[in-house]
Amino acid sequence: MGTLHEEPAVPYDDPERHAMTQRVTWVSVLVNVLLTGAQVAAGIIAHSQGLIADGLHSLSDLVCDFLVLFAAHHSKDPADESHPYGHARIETAASFALGAILALTGAAIIWSAGVKLQSLEELPPVAPMALWTAILALAAKEGLFRYMLHVGESLRSPMLISNAWHARSDAASSLVVAIGIVGNLLGYTFADSVAAVIVGFMIVRMGVVFAWEAVQELIDTGLSVEEVNSIRQVIIDTPGVSSLHELRTRRMAHRSLVDAHVCVDPRISVSEGHRIAEMTRKRVLESHSAVADVLVHVDVEDDLDHDLASQGLPGRDELIRHLAPAFAGLPEPQRVVLHYLGGRVEAEIVLPTAIGADPAVLERLERDIATRLAGLPLVSSLALNQRLRVLAGSGR
After folding, report:
1. How many CA within 13 A on the CB side of residue 195?
2. 75 and 158 in contact (C-beta within 8 Å)?
3. Of the four listed, 89, 107, 271, 314, which is most buried by Cβ atoms within 10 Å?
4. pTM of this prediction?
5. pLDDT by residue (tens digit) across 174-222?
């Protein structure tokens, strides 16, 4: 089966994707309509149970083609309030339905052929017409498989690739039917029914495989180890990212979603941390076209416990309220910066210039703050800094 890890020949946002999907599926519809009619009619006239089974297989293809058309039409719809991640998983649901239809069709064929094998003496001989019809169906299905697989791999569409291999299973079943018909014509009456049973098992197996792959995606199975490692390396190599301690991925039809927790310098500004996150997101999207979106969470340390230690620490309002009496009668601090690191709080207070003009006031303030911090043992340190005057550059 064709790989989905290569870059698509047609970009994901190219409108031609939908047109190509529609075109290849309508070709499949036409072929399957003609084959279904020819195989069932020839099977009835020529008394070939295997050919009738193959015709029913082609009929299931026709149903699957319409599923693909439905999914292709709706999966391209943009994200909305009810589906914030878009509608791509309609393709996944269609792939699951396609697999279920295959499995049920194969089981019905096995059952019917098994019943016929119980009374071989009542089976009429197969006419040569059935053999020529089976050979024609084999050639048509093999050609359809190669065409659909080429387009599916170009678009990196699991749904189209699944439908292509469905056509290949048809070609294989037509080959088995042709061999069974030849055996029947040579006097082995049971050969045609045995061929029908083999075809049924082939159809069931293919259906189970497609349905299982769709289920894996619907339960948010992650990307392959190779893909995850590639994304991980891109994130780690991003300037400003010191480490990566959590990376999660999941598939969404032919695209994928990524969540990452990156560590940055704990004392940079929020805006710089945001810029590093956006740069990380941009680099992953540019290097992995199959990734639809990246959510980057910025951390300041390897908090594998998801910040449980910091939840019991005093917040900004509590800390400022506790220190407020120390500033009674003085101008308010220009800025208070808090660092939550290692289960403790480090505070930086930027003082107005007026406070620093009187050494006695500054000394009293430091002493009073130190006394009050004794009541907050989770505050590990506090730095008092003088406000700096910076002249804006002229830009020249």
Report:
1. 29
2. no
3. 89
4. 0.58
5. 888 888 888 888 878 788 778 878 878 877 887 888 788 777 777 767 7
In the numeric block, which tokens belong to residue 395?
Answer: 């830009």
Sheet holding 379-386, edge to edge: 335-341, 344-351, 379-386
CATH fold of 16-218, please?
Alpha-lytic protease prodomain-like (1.20.1510)
Kindly report, residue by residue over 268-327, the tens digit of the pLDDT: 888 999 999 999 999 998 888 778 789 899 888 776 554 566 677 778 888 888 888 877
Amino acid (one-letter) located at 53? A
Residues 6+ apart with CB under 8 A from 229: none
Enter the tokens of residue 152: 């599916």
Could you report how far apart the first and last alpha carbons of the chain are, in Å?
61
Type of residue found at 48:
S
Could you tell me the CATH superfamily of domain 225-299? Cation efflux protein, cytoplasmic domain (3.30.70.1350)
DSSP bridge partners of 337: 348
Residue spans of alpha helices (H) in the chain: 16-46, 49-75, 89-117, 129-155, 158-185, 191-218, 225-236, 270-287, 316-323, 353-356, 359-373
Within 8 A by CB and 6+ apart from 77, the residues are: 83, 86, 87
